[in-house]
Write a structure and sequence with these properties.
The protein is an alpha/beta fold. It has 2 domains: 15-207 and 369-389, Rossmann fold, CATH 3.40.50.1370; 209-367, Rossmann fold, CATH 3.40.50. It contains 13 helices and 11 strands. It has a 5-stranded parallel sheet with strand order 9-8-7-10-11. It has a 4-stranded parallel sheet with strand order 4-3-5-6, sandwiched between helices. The protein has a two-stranded antiparallel ribbon with strand order 1-2. α4 packs across α5, α6 crosses α7 and α6 (209-223) crosses α12 (363-381). The longest helix is centred in the first third of the chain and has 19 residues, at 76-94. The radius of gyration is 20 Å and the shape is globular. Bound molecules: phosphoric acid mono(formamide)ester (CP). Phosphoric acid mono(formamide)ester binds at residues 117-120, 202, 211, 344-346. The site of phosphoric acid mono(formamide)ester has 9 residues, from loops.
Length: 390
């Protein structure tokens, strides 16, 4: 597989505020009061610019023991390995004699979802069980010792003593990266006997890399290649994390990206610079649909809308744009017969149920594909290979 390569080891958090400098990122939305008490003063004094290079290494063909925090970590060759592993996982799942592959007996995963989830957490636990390990889904933190005043950092260290792999979703940009940093520090201090890999299961309005890998798997299953395919991404380009990760991955693989955007929620500057001439921006969904191989919709992530007057104006504009972007049975007829429509779900009005029977709709298959892809991710980051075990 060939194609344009992303900037390796680049910034993770705060796409809308990314610096251009290698491994440094500005995390404006992260709550630094969550740092361990003895570190809090130092962390806030150094302004919120932190070096993420130690926790966001390029995968470079070897994911074992590494965190997966951003699509920036992956080259085209890296993505190709995840795809090969996902195909092998799918063969194992579909074999009625096997229903999976017992590659990781006694391995333990915790999927810690600090924002609601129907798909991601559940598919991670299914994936780990299909690899022969065990998995626990922890939704919300109301039953955590945070309720007794424990810092979030201390909670991450506690979870790291209990599992071989942590999947983490947070409302804050950079939340999983923060967990990875805390775990690396605890290892450095001799508190932990090993570093437990952290997988980003969605961090605020920043990234959702495991979703993007599953999306790319779905595209590859249909077209068997990426180079030159046109993907049209529709929605809040500023705050919809699945769009960010997918655009980075699609560009890495040589796809052309059309962003249908609202004037209120444009593609972040850092992504525009990163994607270069692979990216076209437009407000005309219908024109884009005629020319697209993959139409990728996403809901309005209005849980991030603030309360100041500018946010209200933004929300009103965006609501009008989402209303004009609704894809229904009539509209989908503009697309080529061999094109496809994806949506990471949950959906709202932007994807009308009248399209559900259309053969171009691959969004439910996309959901199912997340299990073999997350099996691939879990196996690789724990140093195993499904393809080699088959
Ligand atoms: N696609 C996705 O992340 O869905 P959930 O929010 O239900 O996990």
């Amino acid at each position: 597989m060939t194609g344009w390569r992303s900037r390796r080891g680049g910034p993770i958090a705060g796409l809308s505020d990314m610096t251009d400098g290698g491994a440094e990122a500005r995390i404006d939305t992260f709550d630094w009061s969550l740092m361990p008490r003895e570190k809090k003063k130092a962390a806030t004094e150094t302004v919120e610019v932190i070096d993420l290079s130690a926790v966001s290494q390029p995968i470079d063909g070897d994911a074992s023991g590494k965190n997966l925090l951003s699509m920036h970590q992956l080259s085209a060759d890296d993505i190709a390995i995840y795809l090969d592993e996902a195909y092998a996982a799918e063969r194992a799942i579909r074999d009625p004699e096997r229903r999976g592959v017992p590659l990781l007996p006694r391995a333990v995963m915790k999927a810690i979802m600090r924002q609601p989830s129907t798909r991601t957490g559940g598919s991670c636990t299914s994936a780990m069980r299909k690899l022969g390990g065990s998995a626990e889904l922890i939704s919300g933190m109301s039953s955590s010792s945070e309720a007794k005043g424990e810092s979030l950092a201390d909670s991450w260290v506690a979870f790291a003593t209990q599992a071989d792999l942590l999947g983490i979703r947070t409302a804050e940009n950079g939340g999983p990266a923060f967990a990875a940093q805390v775990i690396a520090k605890a290892f450095e201090y001799g508190q932990l006997v090993r570093v437990v890999p952290v997988i980003n299961l969605g961090d605020g309005h920043n990234e959702h890399p495991t979703q993007a890998l599953g999306d790319l798997f779905t595209v590859h299953k249909k077209f068997e290649h990426f180079d030159g395919l046109v993907i049209t991404v529709v929605g809040d380009q500023e705050r919809y994390r699945a769009h960010h990760s997918l655009m980075i991955g699609a560009a890495t693989l040589g796809m052309k990206i059309v962003a249908v955007e609202s004037p209120a929620a444009r593609v972040p500057r850092a992504l525009v610079e990163l994607l270069g001439d692979r990216l076209t921006r437009t407000g005309d969904l219908d024109a884009a649909m005629h020319e697209t191989d993959v139409l990728y919709l996403g809901r309005n992530p209005d849980e991030y809308t603030g309360e100041d007057p500018a946010e209200i104006v933004r929300a009103e504009q965006l609501a009008r744009d989402y209303a004009s972007w609704i894809v229904d049975y009539d509209r989908i007829q503009q697309m080529a017969p061999d094109s496809m429509v994806l949506h990471p779900r949950p959906r709202r009005d932007e994807l009308d149920p009248s399209v559900d029977s259309d053969p171009r709709m691959k969004d439910v298959e996309q959901m199912a594909n997340m299990i073999p892809m997350r099996m691939a991710i879990i196996a690789r980051h724990l140093g195993a290979s499904i393809a080699r075990s088959a």
